[in-house]
Design goal:
The complex is a heterodimer of chains A (100) and B (575).
Chain A (H helix, E strand, L loop, with lengths): L2 H4 L9 E8 L5 H11 L2 E10 L5 E9 L6 H9 L4 E7 L1 H7 L1
Antiparallel strand pairs in A: 1-3, 1-4, 2-3
Chain B lengths: L3 H13 L4 E2 H11 L4 E4 L6 H6 L7 E4 L3 H15 L3 E5 L3 H4 L2 H9 L4 E7 L15 H4 L6 E4 L6 H13 L5 E7 H5 L1 E2 L18 H13 L3 E5 L2 H4 L3 H11 L3 E3 L14 E4 L6 H9 L2 E5 L5 H4 L10 E6 L13 E4 L2 H7 L13 H13 L13 H11 L5 E4 L3 H9 L8 E2 L10 H11 L5 E6 L10 H7 L4 E6 L4 H10 L15 H7 L3 E5 L5 H10 L4 E6 L23
Parallel strand pairs in B: 2-3, 2-4, 4-5, 5-7, 6-7, 9-10, 9-12, 10-11, 12-13, 13-14, 15-16, 15-17, 17-18, 18-20, 19-20
Antiparallel strand pairs in B: 1-8
The chains are: A alpha+beta (100), B alpha/beta (575).
Chain lengths: 100, 575
Amino acid sequence: MTQLQRDKTFEPSGVNGKLKVVLHDVSGTLIRALGTIERRGYDYRDVHCTQRVDGDFDLLVHIEDTGGPNNLDTLCKQLERLYNVVSAEMVGRRKRAERA
Amino acid sequence: MTTATQFDRQQTEILANREPKSGARLLLESIAAQGVDMIFGYPGGAIMPVYDVLPKIPELNHILCRHEQGCGMAAIGYARATGRTGTCFATSGPGATNLVTAIADAYLDSVPVVFVTGQVTSDLMGTDGFQEVDIFGITLPIVKHSYIVRDPADIPGMIAEAYFIAAEGRPGPVLIDLPKDVANALTRERHRWRPYPKVKPEMGQAQDIAAAEALIRNANKPLFYIGGGIAQGDGVTELRELVDRTKIPVVSTLKGLGAMPSDHPNYLGMLGMHGLKAANYAVQDCDLLIVAGARFDDRATGKLDTFAPHAKVIHMDIDIAEINKLRRVNVGLDGSLKKNLAALDPFKNGQIRKDISAWTQLCYDRRAEHEWDYDAPGDFVYAPKLLHDLSRRADDSAIFTCDVGQHQMWVAQHCYFDDPKDHITSGGLGTMGFGLPAGLGAKLGAPERTVITVSGDGSIMMNIQELATLFRYDIALKIVLLDNSALGMVRQWQEVFFDKNYSETNLSDNPDFAKVARAFQIDAFTVNTRDEVDAGIDRLLAAQGPILMHVKIDPNENVWPLVPPGRSNADMMER
């Protein structure tokens, strides 16, 4: 193995968490959001999508990174950059504690 | 770019006009209403209804390229040379898939282009019909946004939104997939289109501006690291004024070239894998990196955790998702680069800065120490000197487009640029075959300018059919073909990193390129030796129509310096 090849070995960094993404009900938005999550280096552990009374969708995903310099804050910004994505935020222990 | 007010006005006009029109006519009239005057395209079965109406819309000049990839890259060249949104048409199936490389190129270099593809009729979609592919699905990762048109009444609003999205914020490609039955359908309906609400912040928060100014005042070794966002954010003037106010040295990415004039006293050159030594050393030593419109791309940074290891970072970018993506920053300023650069005034009210004269002197001494040496050994034409001389002899300093490989880096290193629109290269995707179609698009967009395409013998073969487009429209593009009878950059890497195992990079069986060009009825000649170069440049620059100068260069010439991939920018290899 050359030095060049050795330099290209990645290890997952162990980043994981839950995101809540709100989507407009527009063709292609769900697949665009899910595809962005996967292409930016995350695997799904759990996915739920439900329609709200206002017609938008709540997408809840539990994800785990597959390697590379990832962080969930950047992923949320990348999701919010998509058209017809209303918002993307991390949800988790702190939110539950606040609710309690 | 369409403003929110213009968008609203267009919506009102659209709703007021209820004549029965086909989807194809609505499409073309809506495109014309955006101020588009040029479309690059290639007809085919599914988009025939659009081409049937096209001659009836005189505002739209159609340029028939000879391959859809050429159409897409010509639209990119047009957009980059003019600062306007490009437009490109293709048919379904293979026509659409041939656009994919161009769409990806526009995405990675943030170029505003609207791509319209024909599609099979709605009832055939999903049945694997003839010339049916899911181009919407195929391109999801490489578009800023995309649509499938389901109702012709949506078209006017959709087109207005598509052009708005392509140019707004960080620009990018937008795809519109138009089924044939929707293009044919007549309608009196016009659907109001919701104006897109995600308008980016105008500029950074006041406290962030103040924090950035304090970092600049307290830095001992500050450095600007600028990228393609300067030009796309229309921030060239503001950047130059800020540099003049602060006297801080500047390094540039490949796409940032021209934002500072190549001979500006504060400019150190391009950084990164093939960057100038003075630029890379400055990055390694600085204690404050002011990043403007750049994104810490791996070709610029080398091994990321060794990049500017001692520096605090101010990062300005229109795209907030780029801030803190690869490098944690001390201050992030999202929003308009133009406004953020103008707002930064670290020495207002007589505020005192640290003395940076020792630092700037070190930078400029290094720049002088590592000046290019154009006195190369050997008898072959020395490509860097040819490009250096050519760019300085063109009357208006010329727009350069190029392909990808060694010649691309020589253009970046040795040509003179004083405007970022003058350097059109495939920086993000690195697309061989980009230079010729981008050059013809640039020349059509800026007919008064000298436009020079620099290509290699590997790259030009990937879109050589566009020589026919040059002849068809008599586009006075000047092509410099640097021929080393090899895939030069790959060959160089095989020499340096793969124990000289030259696998599949020998192109010594190339055709006679001058003869090929003449077969397309393009004037062409070959330069074989150094003493023919000056006369060759004269002939190239004097030509009134399209011309190709074929230059034989040393097959063993390499691009230096070179930072090995995955290494620090401090580890530059030399000849």
